Structure formats: C-alpha cells, structure tokens
C-alpha cells in the first residue's frame, strides 16, 4: 500500500530488501540472547519477515509493469529468478551440511547486495503511477475498489484455500524425507530440482498465454500440484521424492506468472502493487493455517495419509475455482449487461 501511496515501487523494494537482509544476517547474533526468559528470535524473526515477505510480490509487480511497457512476457523474466534460486539451492544443498549454520545467514546478505545495487541504479523504469505527481492520500487510493471485482475476490479466496495444501506439503517435507530414510540435509536438492523445472515452463508462458486464458492456466497448475501431493502419499525412498518434485516445479512455474499476471490485470490502476501484497498476505494466512492443520493431521493419521488428504483438498479447491469462473461468466456478466 505504501508503494502505491508514494507512487514508487522501487523505493519500497530498496527499503524492504536492505532492512530485511540486515536483520536476517543478524539472526545468528540474536540466537543466544534472551529477553525476560524468551529467546530474542521470537521478536527478531517476525520483524525480519515484516520486511522480507513483501519483496517478491513487489518485484513481481514491478517486473510485470516493465514487461508490459516493453512489450515483453513476464514469464521468461521471472524464469531468471528461478534459475538463480536453483543454482543457490543446489549449491547450499551440498554445502549446508558441511558448514556452520550461521554462515547461511551471512551468505543471504552477500547475495542481496548485487540485487540492491541493480534496483538502486534502475533509472528510467516504470516505477508506479505518474511518478512526478505528489503521493496519493489513502482516500484517493480507493482501497475498497480492490474488492469490487468479482474475479479478483474469488481468486484471493481461492488462493487462501489452495495455498493450505501447497504450503503444508512444503513445510512438512522434511518429515516425509525422514520417513523414507532420506537425509533432511538434502532438502536443498529437492528445492533445486523444483526451481530448475520452473525455468522451461516460465519460458513457455508467453506461448501458453496466447493459447489459453489465465484462469485455465491457473487450474492446470493446481491440477498438476494435486497430482504431485497425492503421489507423495505413495513414496518409499528419497529418489521418488526428487522425481515427483519435478511436478511441483511445473505447477509453480505456471502458477507464479499466471497468478501474478491475472491479479495485475484485474486490479485497479492505483492499487496494482497493493493487490499483489494482499495476495501475498492471504498466502501468509494460509501458511499459518497449513502449519496448524498439518501438524494436527500428521500426529493423528501419519505423514503419507496427510499428503493424500492434502492432494484431495487441492483437487477440491480446483473444482471450486472452476465453478467460480463459470458462475462469473454466466451470472456476473448478465448482471453487468442489465446494469448497462
């Protein structure tokens, strides 16, 4: 909201990147500090994530805006983020078990510095709305307009429920790795495989977008993800988890550009950045719910049964989203025609 209010995405990205990176690098320093008998990390980590979490939604929004202005597709641009993630994940998947855990936090700060420099010197980019004018007041932003679009509201609701199985499947993956006798330290390999698979899908996004509507691509992505999670319920060794992770990469490689572009296309002009962070906030809420629900389910039904249930839940979410699109095309369109 602040970036929309100030009419500058770049300034808020700089602020969030810099403060978030410094606080994250300081996590090991606070790990041994207690305040009134409570570990300081319980205070430091929430403040750190307050700055870190908005970065990717803002960067996605900024990238979509500049891609549209330059006649480019967002998918291939976003693929380079997946590439760097994959390289770092593979590297740390090998190195993490062999180094002091604190060094990972310092590495995070080091790799953030080039990103800060690129953002700081990115002059002449599309940076918001009429950047030469004074900041908007909250009244001028008309925040309520965000929730007057049927398709945007239904997608936000869909995101909350779809991200519960999506996030929980990731959060509890170490339990599945352990259950099949794998080494949790090799989690980075799985993350690298997922990110590497995202890359070709993102490069194909432009062609797919020309042939299929964004809601269709979102539904296809959700269907692939549902298949992935259900298959996790049948794994017997670590290699199977790695192989199935390819599906996650394909699903996420489609969902990231399709979802972000869909929200950007639906949001009012003055609330383009706000819309992305509202979506990210809903994802965070889903993350909280998935942690609580997932932990409760695993304790009662076991890890493999948990993944089967999450896969079914994802399939149900897919069906409900498809129904919401059908209702929108029939009911909402009819109402708009009557009003006009």
Notable traits:
Growth Hormone, Chain: A; mainly alpha; 16 helices; 340 residues; globular; two-stranded antiparallel ribbon; single chain
Brief sketch in words of this structure:
The chain is an all-alpha fold and 340 residues long.
Overview of the molecule:
This protein has about 350 residues and is an all-alpha fold. The chain has one domain: Growth Hormone, Chain: A (Up-down Bundle). Helices cover about 80% and strands about 0% of the residues. The chain has a two-stranded antiparallel ribbon. A hairpin with a 2-residue loop joins strand 1 (about 35) and strand 2 (about 40). The chain is globular. Mean pLDDT is about 85; it is low at about 335-340.
Topology:
Blueprint (H helix, E strand, L loop, with lengths): L1 H5 L2 H17 L1 H4 L3 E2 L2 E2 L1 H12 L2 H16 L3 H22 L5 H20 L17 H4 L8 H22 L1 H7 L7 H17 L1 H7 L2 H19 L5 H29 L5 H30 L1 H37 L1
Antiparallel strand pairs: 1-2
Helix pairs in contact: 2-4, 2-5, 2-7, 5-15, 6-11, 6-14, 9-15, 9-16, 11-14, 13-14, 13-16, 15-16
